[in-house]
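On clarity, I found the account of how folds are encoded harder to follow than it need be. Since the whole study asks how a given chain folds, the encoding of that fold should be made plain. The format is easy to grasp once an entry is in front of the reader. For illustration, here is how one protein appears when written out as sequence plus structure tokens.
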Amino acid sequence: MRVSKRLIKHYGTEHKHKIVIITNYQMTNEKNNRGATIGTSDEPENALEPGVTLAGRYELIKQIGRGGMGVVWSAEDKTAERKVVLKFVPREIEKFEEAVAQLKSSFNKIHDLHHPHVCPVYTLENDWEHGYYHVMKWLDGETLDQYVVRTVGRQQPLPLDEVLRILQPVAEALDYAHSKRIIHRDIKPLNIFLVLDGEKSIQDVQVIDFGIASEIRSSLMDVSQMRFDTLGTRRYMAPEQWRVRPQSGRTDQYALAVVAYELLAGYLPFDSDDIAMLRQAVMQDPLEAIRGVPEHVNTTIQKALEREATKRFENCREFVRSLEAAPVDTLTGRMVLELEQEKNYRYRGQAIFSPDGKKIAFSRYNCVCIFDAKSGEKLHVLHTTQVASVSFSPNGRTIVVQVQNALQILSTESWKVLHTRDGIPAYTVVFSPDGKKIVLQRPQKLLILDAESEEIHHEFGVHQQGFLDGVFSPDGKKIAVSVFEPAGRGYSTYICTLE
């Protein structure tokens, strides 16, 4: 029997600013999506039903999850006039004062966390009939696990830039919590929640379940005979957790690196359905390099997954920053990331970055190549028969390429040709600062074209022999022109106004 479960957790008394924690789970009483069995609670399903009101304000809407840590309901907060989530704690906890104390202590630790990427918990309530439950913020979206399955499919990798976009806010949230001496201890895709818009695009990333489930589970296992299947969590546990040794922010960093590995490779770095074998793999097995990613990515993840915590990065943001940019040799200045080279091209021309720095365009003899500046992935190749010149528009959405006697403007998203203008041979092309004009350099002549209509607005010419170089002023109202004059006379510079 499968139960699709959306889990959200809340703690403590009502304050002006609250913290919310939300978790979504795909649960089953046989195996979850990673092959791990999940325990179920012995708590009966009595009395909790749609329409029941708790604490005089929380009207239950429907049960949205159930698992070893209790049931989860969506509810309407009649007082605050908002939708919330109620996460019920197993009634077993009430039999043990130590476990109850741990529950309240866990809440107190996270109650004062105020960060844009930490999902808030509003309050921890205790109902005489139904026991303790957390009131948490309702978020529209899905867990990272669910997002991956929906967008690329199970055991399929995500692109590096998308992984970075997800991990960056998670790293910020974790470092913030670590600065408050709070460790999550249970970072995994199920505890990373993606807030989506109506088109299912990511609008925000929230870290949920800050140590709550892990501490409650640990407390109950210590004081009672209750046992929970934690195989799904163990796959992301650092060696110090397996060894039951002191933990730190680097423990969360290790788990975040496991998540990064899984997203980029499509599978976990260490995995087994047998807990003893999984522990042995984490402690002893070598890390397999991820295929199809830049070398610096594997090097970064290798460091974050060091078995000795002191050998990892100082914090989570440093780890993600190292994933983001290829390191540079400080002695030689040589970039470690090497772009794939095209064969049989006799000439390399200009190389330019896009305005946002995310793309690099190389113009070469008979081709223009555009690469992803972070991963080195080749995004597009435009084949020509002569030397081509290239320029990005200021907003980076289009790129202009001068090929033979034609001018082409392409979309940098679809790489479709948006406009073509024939019969205007030139050596270089440059966008104006506002992106509305294009300068074309020709022997003894400079042409100014409208970027949309491609009509010629201005022509500048000189009598001297040589070539022109045109550069716009920052306001786009003037052009500085350098003209090479033969017979050893050097260069002359002209400033042309467009008004």
Summary: The longest helix spans residues 160-179. Residues 343-425 form a domain with the Thrombin, subunit H fold (CATH 2.40.10.480). The first strand starts at residue 2 and ends at 9.
